[in-house]
Amino acid sequence: MKHVLDIDDLSAEEIETLYELTDQIKADPGAFDDSLANESLVMLFAKPSTRTRISFESGMTELGGHAIYFSKEHSQIARGESLRDTATVLSRYAGGIMARLFDHETLLELADGADGPVINGLTNKLHPCQALADGYTLRENGLDDGPLAYIGDGNNVAHSLMQLCATLDIPCRIGTPDGFEPDQEIQDRVAGADVMVTNDPVKAVAGARAVYTDVFVSMGDDESKRSAFEGFQVTPELMAETDDAAFMHCLPAHRGEEVSAAVMDGENSIVYDQAENRKHVQKAILQTVYET
Ligand code: CP
Ligand code: NVA
Question: pTM here?
Answer without folding.
Answer: 0.98
